[in-house]
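Entry 14. Two folds queued back to back today. First construct below, sequence then structure tokens.
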Amino acid sequence: MDDRWPHFLKAFWVLDVVVRKGSFSAAAECLNVSQSAVSQQIRLLESEYGPLFDRHPRQLKPTESCLGLAGHLRKGFSHIEEGVIVSRQKSNQITLSVLPSIGSAWLIPRLHKFQELYPDIEVRLSMSGALVDFSDTGLDAGIRLGTGDYPDLIARPLCDDEVFLVCSPTRLKEFSQPPVFSDLRQQLLIYDNARSDQNWPAWVKATGQDDIPVRQKLMISDSGQVIRLALSGRGVALVRRVLVADELASGELIKLFEVSLKLTSQYYFVLPKRSRGQPAVAVFYEWLKSEFEPYRS
């Protein structure tokens, strides 16, 4: 090994992130450093290896030599990451990236059952709606709602879902028996910030109506809060079946109409290849499958 290589180690890591993120600014944000600090590390490498990027306004294009170097670096850093994971396996710790909706409304209320079965496994949750980069974090796996198209990740389907309207038994007394769509003119609609094809416009389309007027709308990004407001009788809520399955079973919430919007997305358990042999991840996945089983249609 060249004696100078350790001197460039930090710069090599910065170069790897720049190439993967596509810009100095994105790399700086990922590494939580300034853009000038990233530029400084790249200049250090360019003093040794020559130009690594063709710099154009609003565009940063890696040179051929840069791509060749970056390819070798990614392989090396992947081996290092795998080694770190192997050393962590003995600690029986798993760190999960979870959607806030499924995390707060579904997983956390059930997590005590896993902890009772496997008291030696420590579970850490990172709740975020963003698609995290598993190569830049200490995350072992995650739960996502999507099509299963996650490059460089292993995606294992858990269950599908659907969207429909619910309300509390108290709120139901304000509706005709059986309820009709025109009753919604007097109701507050509570919904989350899901895409339009998973939200109110798509549900209305599924009813066959051109429009269904409501008295007022309230959008809350946290699906757990949407459910809580519905439970308290504040209005009607557009929700996903999986998230309110327990409340429907207990009678705390009532499905208002037979109309359901079947989602094209599914819940997936995703993990990077380096987590594939981790015992704690395998155990958690098997437990998760059994918990999702009643919600599969």
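Second construct, same run, same settings:
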Amino acid sequence: MMRPILVVAVLALSLPLSALASSFAGSSAGSASGASSAGSSSSDDDKVVLDAREDAAAFVASDGAIRGARLEAALLHLRERDAAQREASDMALARTLLAR
């Protein structure tokens, strides 16, 4: 009974932040005509990570039992981008996503 309440509480606390972060990512992506391919790639990377925050919150709150598709994509993305993160546990990376 306690875990579902914890999951709901964590998700409720993270929703306003993720909504704000998603809005920020969308507004800072640049215009289609003036954005360089490197800039677009960077904003796409950030979007993958920001979109995974809700899944990361559920993963942490459930002690790893809930694994969403967005979290899986972000974990893969982070490990491909940074060699140091290849050695980090899924839980450590999920907590890092929540701290952003």
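Quick look at the second one. Residues 2-23+38-99 form one domain. The longest helix spans residues 2-27.
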